[in-house]
Structures are given as structure tokens and as C-alpha cells.
Amino acid sequence: MNKKGFASDNNSGIHPNILKAIEQANVAHAIAYGDDDLTRAAQQTFKQHFGENSETFFVFNGTAANVLSLKAATQSFNAIICSELAHINADECCAPEFFTGCKLAVCPTVDGKITIPEIQKHIKGIGSQHHAQPKVVSISQPTELGTVYTLDEIKEIAEFAHANDMLLHIDGARLANAAVALNMDFAKFTTDTGVDVLSFGGTKNGMMYGEAVVFLNNQLAENFMYTRKQAMQLASKMRFVAAQFIAYFSNNQCIETAAYANKMAKLLEAKIKEIPQIKITRKVESNAVFAIIPPEICEDLRKEYFFYFWDENNYEVRWMCSFDTTEEDICNFVEKIKMLLDNTTHKIQNK
Known about the structure:
Helix 8 (about 175-180) links the parallel strand 5 and strand 6. Helix 8 crosses helix 11, helix 11 packs parallel to helix 13 and helix 12 packs across helix 13. By secondary structure, the protein is of the alpha/beta class. The protein is about 40% helix and about 15% strand. The protein has helices at about 15-25, 35-50, 60-75, 85-90, 95-100, 115-120, 150-165, 175-180, 225-230, 240-250, 255-270, 295-305, 325-350, and strands at about 55-60, 80-85, 105, 135-140, 165-170, 195-200, 210-215, 280, 290, 310, 315-320. The protein folds into two domains: about 15-250, Type I PLP-dependent aspartate aminotransferase-like (Major domain) (Aspartate Aminotransferase, domain 2, 3-Layer(aba) Sandwich); about 255-350, Aspartate Aminotransferase, domain 1.
């Protein structure tokens, strides 16, 4: 088995408090399909964080949360505007297009974010029966490059979307990491900025499984229980998802674990910057570090510490830190990099 790696925060284990919550939920019987006390308590917890008017539905995974959020906000003749790097565009096997019937209209990006001028380019053909009608702007917070939209940036996009009869969706698979980076409560940069619906994730931050679709514009939730059932995302034993979310929010756990992961990413960045042969390529604002590494060390490094290439042609890699990453993990990883670089140098000198 590989050592604890930096491939993805999905690869991390389950936080002990989450496991304990699952175990505590595993007593007696409870009514299935969400008609239980734990599910109601978890939904109330979401109201405490996102507002009394919000409506929350639990699903199994992040792709479902994204796809069903978008399906609730669109009809099949609509277009969804997103970054070219968006998970819904690059990593969900056409599930958004397949289940919504919508066209994805992608915007180029340098830092993972999309801007009003790029969104504006897709506002065309309005009212024409020959063109897909723009309906949703979808952004990721943090982005796929680990960068974080500011409060003003989200407000600006929400206002632009609403002024053009569109809605704003957030892919919040790592929303807790963004909350830490912004030093804000969740509602401050979602509900209060005019976000309509978001996918809320916990799997990357210590949960076992389960995500949430959170409607901040609750009119979109009107028929969602049917949509979720049709999409095969209605858990029979939903209390085990709900119990995780209750623990996730309790005692500020999700913020503490996300803060720790972000801190470990900054530590990794600082140590990597001490190695002249490696170049950090993106701002480190959450729990992701992107870097270009010498190709001659890639294979051996990945054998011991698995990670993914971001841009294989340029040997740009992505290293993710998790709630269970330790300083020792980072120090050992960096020492391995230095050792491989030294070995490479010696081989060249001895030729």
C-alpha cells in the first residue's frame, strides 16, 4: 500500500467523530427515506447555517448534488454557463448534459474563476427558438485550481445572473475550505450574496459519504423530492447521512478540519518553495498545491506518494492536503523529493 499521499482529499479516511455519529445512529429502527428524527435535525442544522428559508435534500455523492441542483433550476432547452475547468464540465462524464438535457457553455479561465465579460459572451439568442436559452451560471467555490471567489466577486456574478433572468449555482464540494479562506460564515458568501442553489460537500473533509443539495431560493425545491427519487438518489437509511452532517457541523468541526487542511497546504507550499527545481504554479488559497516538477522524478515519486498530473504535458501536478495530513507526512514527502533530485543530479554527474 502507498504511503499517505496527496492525490485527493477524497482518499482520506473518515473523521473519528463522523464514525462515532454513524455508530450512535445504528440503534433500534427508524422510519426510512428521511422521515426520521436525525434527518429532520440535520435539515434544521442547515437552516441555522444557510437561513430559515433554505431547503436541504441529501444525496449520495457530489456528481448527483451538482446534476440535480442544475436539473431543478433548468429545462432541457437551457444553457448552463461554467468554467472550462468546472467539475460539471471536465469530470462528470457528461452527467449534467445527460440528466438535464442542457448545453454547457464554457468560459476560459486563468485562475479557475469566471468573470462577467466571459459570461456575457454566452448571453445571446435570447427569445430565439433556434438557440439554447442561458439559465444558470455555475461556479465552484473553491475553484478546481484551489482559488477562492471573494464576497464581491460572488455578489457581482449573482447580480449579473439575476439581471439577465438567470440563476446562480455553486459547486461547494469544498465549501468549508472556502469559508476558512474567506473567514466568513457560510451564509455570508452564499445566501447573503444571492446564490440560488448549492451543492454542499463533506466527503472531502472527513465524512464517509453523502452530500447535500441546498436550495437558498426555495421555490426551486418545489418538486425536488420527485426529481431526487427519479435520479435514484433517495437513501432508504438516510439517517446515516444525516448523522454525519450533524457531527460535521457540531462544535465547528467542519471549519476546524478545513482550516487544518488549508494550513497543511500552506506548509507544503512553503517547503516546496525551498526547492529551486520545482515551481509553484497557482495561488494556494485552500487545500490544493499545484506545481511543475522535473519529469525525471515523477515516476519514482508517484510510486511512493501517489498524486495526479494536472497538465501531463508540462509535468504540472496537483497535491491535495486533507484533514488527516500531518506535518510529518509533508516533511517526509519533501525529503523524498529532495532525495530523488539529488540522485538524479549524481547520475548526470557520473555519466
